[in-house]
Amino acid sequence: MPAREPGQAHGETAADQGGARGWPSSSLLWALALLLLGLLATAAIAHHEWAGQQRRADLLQQGLANAAQARMRQPLQGAAMVLRSMQTVFLSSKGMNQEEFAHYQQNLRPHELAQGYVLTAFAQRQASRDRPGADAYRYQFVAPLDGNQVLLGFDISRQPANLRALQLARDRDLPTASAPFELLQFRDGADSALGITVRLPVYSHGTVPLTVAERRAREIGALAVSLRLEPMITRALEGRVLEDMHVQIRDLDAPPGQDLVFASAQPDPARPQQVRQMDFGGRRWEMRLWPRRDTAEWGPLRAILVAGTTISVLLALLLWSQMTTRQRAVELGRRMSVRFGESEARFRTLNELLPALVLLANGDGSRITYANQASRELLGDVVGLPLCALFASLRACEDAIAMATGGSGWRSQEAMLAPAGSAPLWINASLAQVEVEGVPHLLMVATDTSAQRAMTERLHYQATHDELTGLCNRREFERLLREALAGHDGTVAAVPFALLYFDLDQFKLINDLSGHAAGDQLLVQLVRAMRAELAPGSILARLGGDEFGVLAPGVDQAQAEALAERIRRAIERHIFRWYERTYTLSASIGLVMVESKGSTLKDLLAWADSACYQAKESGRNRICTYRDDAASTHRIGEMEWASRLRGALEQGHLLLDYQELVALDPATDEGMHVELLLRMRDPEGGVILPGAFVAAAERYGLMPAVDRWVIRTALANFSRLHPCGAQLRSCSINLSGASVEDDGLADFILDAVATFGLQPQRLCFEITETVAVRDLKRVAQVIERLRAAGCRIALDDFGAGMSSFGYLKNLPVDSIKIDGSFVRDLGRDPVSRIIVDAVTRIGHERQLRVLAEWVEEESVLSVLRELGVDYAQGFLLHRPERVAFQRGFA
User: In this structure, are 234 and 379 located in the same domain?
Assistant: First the structure.
């Protein structure tokens, strides 16, 4: 045999040695590359976490800024509410003295409506003693008087900021704020005396003056609410806003150097600022907010960096270890004892550093021979114990060992470990058979999923329960109802049960008077009281704001009614106290018994809602059991129409038609006038007339939303309503009673007019006579605001309500539409002719335009021309057509 070269092991070639020497540099480069890639990934994750924290901080700051802007309006609007109330008192009172003035203020509770409230005062308009031809405004009544006596007789004209606000309020008849100035009664105090006044004029008796000249002539004095700025702002913004943010407020209309209203600190240019602007009472305030401290949380970033770096190092070491296996095999082949020791040490070192649980047991799992550091920290000292002693389920462990020893291996989705002396935990694990020194062993690798499982359970609970009361929410309650309806085989359950559906009467009043915090506390207390009345197995759920449901299994009609009565009494006798107020409530309860097959979830909810509504209509605070009769069927039909109408509003399935209004004397008006008519598109592409769904819309409070959709859609597409385009002279829109009684209707219309740049003279709003006389004062106020802006008003269906002609003297309208029931029989009924003639004469006497509807015959048209009616509409003159911009729709 040829002699071996020095340095060659038995059976080893030179190529083998060269290859072994070349591996370390290449494996090290790969390991370093993996390490670099891991560090880059860690940096990217950390940057993403940091960016997410910054986004959350920005959202928090924006939310606080929006909240600050809204909360700053509350005391100012509260002051305006006090002034408007006192203005009404002056207009309705024949006389006023200091005692009555103070009594009214005490009843209004202005300190609750406006933070920073100081006083309410009335200044009487007088001729100035010092300035001939000028007016003086001297305070005559002040409340509270204690501490403010110095203001009695004080002339407002001596304070320019106050006087300008007073004059602006007088000319606009709107609450007007003054520039900040030092309050007279606080000048000698240690605290800030800076404040503002909100003013509102008081006019002499009569109709509301509409022009500036009338307002100046009829002014008898001015009301004022005085507010101290520092307590007003700090109380309005107390809580999260001032705890987390610095705030600076400036009056943009004040001269430079005098514009600072409030500042908790000087702005820090290094921190992002939120800027909000608030307009009130003719003045503009700018609010700047910036965080008091760095909101970033560095703990998660450190954890990501440490964990990512550690994992990257371990993976790099693992790769380097794998790539150097051949070298170690050659080296360990020559030195068996050294190889065995190094391999075992490296295995143990790597496994000790791994965050996962690593356990090694003998071949049948009867004894654990090794547990890494993570296993010892979570499970304790388990070496020597059987592997199945760790599992909560012995059967699951035995099955896992059988699969592992069978060669297929075992991997669980989730398993529970419950070792003695340690807390139970959930894991994702795998178990496989390996050989160590030629002997079969079982290797288990697992990760702790307890925190993830707890989070999943928490999310599931939040998805199925109401956060405030801890009751089941609507989704979970409907799931339980389905289970009660159907058995495991899909058939209807044989066990009868009762469904109670109820809501609290006048609950909104508590929210409006005492705030949502009071309402939330009341709900918590009522839930506790209602739970005490439930039998075991009954389920109480919160279905909405003040809506609740009860599922009572295994009860008959009498037991269900007794349960409903216990709940009603528990609510009725509960006394709720909130600060200085005491409230009692009642509930209207609808009851549905389910004793046979054939019902669906939709049926149950509709029946229960219908029964609850009937309880409300019957006087509230009572129980109504659903009966399968004509009234209930009609009510459910209305509910379905209301649901379809809501869907049409959301999905854009409402349509508009127009009908032309024809001038009977074309020489007097050559323009095109139309009236808009509402329609709804059904799922099959047909068109549904309003008679099918308007009653349901009125009953379920949907008409204000429908009217606002019509107004906004018409104004946004005004030049595309009629084929004549921009030449359309005017458009008439009907307003429902609910919309007219909405305090925000006039503001909505005027905002829409300004948004779409439409001339208000081209809009005519029709109000039915019955709606107009239902609340004459409120309707007159809405009409006057719209007419003052230039819009025209028509009194629709005049004569249908059998009301007096005297209402025409009090309603400032522009035109009258004679009800079609009189017009239709005009050619045959002498009484109808007399009524139409009388309405026309009275309308012309008041310089109103008169319009007749339902004109369908030539004979009727001739009589209308003979009587001097101005306009007519009906099928004879023009049949309704789809508006131009919706011609491509159904």
Answer: no
